């Protein structure tokens, strides 16, 4: 089976700062590092490192060939990444001494993925494969419609959050993954909560250090709590993406969802003890040996 990921590819510029700057404040960074990132790239790497097949659908600019090489090195199928005229997307990431972050994203090529590439990629998909999307690319609704017709499991990680984006594809979704703030934003804007009116079979709400909540149609939407592993965070960037990738990889490999969430929780906990994004996502062997 395969996890097809219509996802962003970014160059991450990570600045270590003593604290996150307030409006109007200028502070000096202690260091700067460039790495591979973007929610899409992070999730593809996490899927691959969790032992599942990840196929990435995306775009880079002429300056982004290094990112494709890095994804390939990490085990991601990159045949459906196209070079376009726009520059590669990038993110400016401030990380403070407590591991918290503030991020500014420039979409660039991520918003210029050709429709033809999405169609060509998904033409190779099989019923039961997973189609994963986030809100950092174009062609989300187009991909969801094709994926639904092909019998794929449609999963949406609703970040960066947009009510319009998530509600546009919600009728096609099998799983919705979002954090507690995003769930509250969705509820405030639409009145929807996990349940029959939302119409999504599985909803996973992440809550950072408090773990996550799972809502399933098969269990009459009764919330189930899964605690987070207790660690001292160094950098929280990419932890949610790691969690998502590991959950979907576990499900793709036939795990019960409870086991997939447990594995993903350990992966996310290990991730926050590392500095960086896609380049430092833990592999399956590390996660299996991590007790937290």
Task: Describe this structure as you would to a colleague.
Residues 6-282 form the Carbohydrate kinase PfkB domain. Its cofactor is Mg(2+). It is found in: Cytoplasm. InterPro entries: PfkB_dom, Ribo/fructo_kinase, Ribokinase, Ribokinase-like. The protein has a single domain, classed as Ribokinase (UDP-N-acetylmuramoyl-L-alanine:D-glutamate ligase). It is 31% helix and 25% strand. The chain is built from 9 helices and 13 strands. The chain has helices spanning 39-49, 65-73, 115-122, 140-149, 163-169, 180-190, 239-252, 257-271, 284-288, and strands at residues 2-6, 10-16, 31-37, 53-60, 77-83, 89-95, 101-106, 130-133, 153-157, 175-179, 202-206, 212-216, 224-226.
Structure at a glance:
With 292 residues, the chain is α/β, with parallel strands linked by helices. It has nine helices and 13 strands.
């Amino acid at each position: 089976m395969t996890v097809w990921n219509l996802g962003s590819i970014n160059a991450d510029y990570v600045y270590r700062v003593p604290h996150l700057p307030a409006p109007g404040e200028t502070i000096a960074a202690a260091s700067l590092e460039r790495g591979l990132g973007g929610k899409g790239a992070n999730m593809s790497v996490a899927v691959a490192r969790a032992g599942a097949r990840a196929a990435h659908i995306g775009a880079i600019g002429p300056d982004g060939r290094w990112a494709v090489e890095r994804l390939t090195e990490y085990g991601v199928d990159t045949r459906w990444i196209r070079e376009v005229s726009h520059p590669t997307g990038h993110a400016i990431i401030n990380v403070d001494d407590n591991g918290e972050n503030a991020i500014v994203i420039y979409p660039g090529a991520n918003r210029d993925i050709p429709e033809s590439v999405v169609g060509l990629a998904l033409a190779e998909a099989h019923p039961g494969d997973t189609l994963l999307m986030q809100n950092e690319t174009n062609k989300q609704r187009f991909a969801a419609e094709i994926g639904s017709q092909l019998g794929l499991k449609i999963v949406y990680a609703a970040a960066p959050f947009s009510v319009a984006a998530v509600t546009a594809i919600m009728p096609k979704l099998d799983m919705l993954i979002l954090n507690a703030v995003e769930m509250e934003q969705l509820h405030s804007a639409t009145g929807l909560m996990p349940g029959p009116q939302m119409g999504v079979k599985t909803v996973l709400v992440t809550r950072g250090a408090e773990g996550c909540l799972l809502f399933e149609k098969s269990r009459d939407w009764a919330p189930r709590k899964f605690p987070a592993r207790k660690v001292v965070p160094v950098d929280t960037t990419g932890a949610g993406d790691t969690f998502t990738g590991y959950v979907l990889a576990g499900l793709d490999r036939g795990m019960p969802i409870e086991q997939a969430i447990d594995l993903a929780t350990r992966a996310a906990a290990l991730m926050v003890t590392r500095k960086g994004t896609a380049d430092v996502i833990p592999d399956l062997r590390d996660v299996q040996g991590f007790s937290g």
